[in-house]
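Subject: complex prediction, re-run

Hi both,

The earlier run crashed halfway through, so I resubmitted it with identical inputs.
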Amino acid sequence: MPTTQPRIEDLFAARAREAVPPLYGAAGQRTTPMISLAYGLADPALFPRDQLSAAAATLLGDHPAAAEALNYGMTFPGLTQQVCERLRRQAVEAEPEQILIGYGSSQILALLPQVFLDPGDTVIIEGPSFMGAVKRFQMAGAHLVTVPVDAEGMNTDALADTLRDLAATGKRPKFIYTIPTFHNPTGATMPLARRKRLIELAAEYGVLVVEDDAYGDLRFQGDEIPPLAALDSDGWVLRVSTFSKILAPGLRIGWAYGRREIIDRLAMFKSEGTTGPFITRVVALYSAEGRLDNHIDALCDLYRSKCQVMVDAIKRELPDVQFTAPDGGFFVWATLPQGMRATELLERAQERGMSFLPGVNCYPDERGNECIRLAFSFQSAEKIEEAIGILGNAMRSI
Amino acid sequence: MPTTQPRIEDLFAARAREAVPPLYGAAGQRTTPMISLAYGLADPALFPRDQLSAAAATLLGDHPAAAEALNYGMTFPGLTQQVCERLRRQAVEAEPEQILIGYGSSQILALLPQVFLDPGDTVIIEGPSFMGAVKRFQMAGAHLVTVPVDAEGMNTDALADTLRDLAATGKRPKFIYTIPTFHNPTGATMPLARRKRLIELAAEYGVLVVEDDAYGDLRFQGDEIPPLAALDSDGWVLRVSTFSKILAPGLRIGWAYGRREIIDRLAMFKSEGTTGPFITRVVALYSAEGRLDNHIDALCDLYRSKCQVMVDAIKRELPDVQFTAPDGGFFVWATLPQGMRATELLERAQERGMSFLPGVNCYPDERGNECIRLAFSFQSAEKIEEAIGILGNAMRSI
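This time it finished cleanly. Structure:
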């Protein structure tokens, strides 16, 4: 029998001793009176509520699969098949065994450290990048190395230098996390030549490329560029995407495509087993018969128009910032006038009733305070104009 | 640059090098012509399809929360509140911060090793037990110590001996995994005195008690016994339960209640973040206004009657087996006649068109082959009678 009073805290595993605050605090922002351009929420105006409701009613009504949808069972194979077909239309020769459906692509990203990272392992990320993913890699103890992003996405010459330098010290990074199309936060899209170079480097140095393509279906202008997964014949690319931007984030359905050995291991660490038989059937029923494709066309029209509203408003109200209009996605990334700090600007903007994401949130360190991310996805055109007007006032107050 | 050809397999973390087959193979059984009494599937006859459909239609129609349900956001706090209220009715003084909603209780159980287990740590389980949980603990590298179950659940005298012996060798187990009410697989319910003794031992030795109460709401007869969480004032109990048995498994909603420090850490390792805003609102909308309570009453009537059908059929067809009729839950646990092996009986039964779970599947080792688990939850009364008749033929063939 122990002689001192036992404490519950002593039961925690080493990895759990330090409590980390949850990453998912963004939702609370929506209820404030602030016009927030900070987060990449979807536009509720085009949630296909009636058609989703019809899909649920069909499934729960006299559909022969209703009993299976509501009982214990697997992720609906028909949804996996739909993802396969979408991939094949992008020249990715996917088989169902190479696909894992998860609760949002953020779940897939959060599983990567479990499958790939031992203590001290190196991961290459873009600077700036999607902080939800990067924070997960950091939490898992990864050593993060940043490769710069320019107007054409990740700079592959810089990547080559980084890989060579790491190899010289005996380090083989586990994966390169990249958002090659409509990059978050910069909006940049990597051209074909860089994509090919990236795959070559991955194969040469034996590093996995994690292609996060949450936004790729939302192209407003310009020609399609093949996804990294279509350019890779040896399994060096794990492609991750989601129904969040093209249907509704709240349904929580994302997926990964890659080598069977990787998909099997991601599934092994997916703590809840398969992804809900009910929700996967609702999404598949909705998406069938071209409904999802038609919906994506409508979304592209909506986001193109809202992006244009933001671009025009920035040109009018913020003549001193530098930015490039994106060809798709949710964000405009802007560089502030020389010497202005994003965190200071945010305080001024919030006092006046709008908010944005300071660039420093998109780096694992102190960099990025000269940049800001502005999401045009969630607010209406009118609110976007109002918010950029407020931002102009805030800038002039500094 | 590396001189040998790099291999993707070399990128896997140590914990992921050996691929483990998925645990969730049960669903495939349903499509065979076999009458399966093997798995604890819910009875589709009472899935509240119309009311669930109405809840989805209300939410997706003109409900003010539709936009929030479909966008990024948190687990719906109203569902957490409902779980709180159910706990308070069982004399558990729960606060919302003490509750984590997950994708099924199996997700919560699978997260336990992340929060509590360092390599070589000891976990105490019941023998027999729910193998879905135990396999997860095993996969995580836990050292499992088994305490026997009798007609009154876990034998707390044996537990006291086990804890004393472990303490004598300097070992403090991290948690005791128990199913005190309508035990899976034995159906046994732990009386109040043993429950109190279990909590005392947990506090004395500083070990967490994980109370898995998936079946507790499905009582056919006998008086309610307070859950372990109601008997514990110091936070030594983590209570885990689910909407799977009282509503529909395919919705994948379960929950944990416990000390804030534990709940926060479970949330930290829940890879997908919060649990879907849409599905948690559908479940909460359905469950409100007493609908779930009324539904549970109807379920108790249904399962009581099917249990009785099975008990009568066993008495009639299998006079040589020993069993105790449960007061609730999904299962009858039966001991075969002296010398008969469950795995051999299963072969004979399957040849004739029925299946069950051999007891050996409920132990982490070779024990249990003299017992079988028969689920009365899924099949109709007629099919249960037919299956037990087939089982009688199979037994007589040995």
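DSSP finds 13 helices and 14 strands in chain A.

- K.
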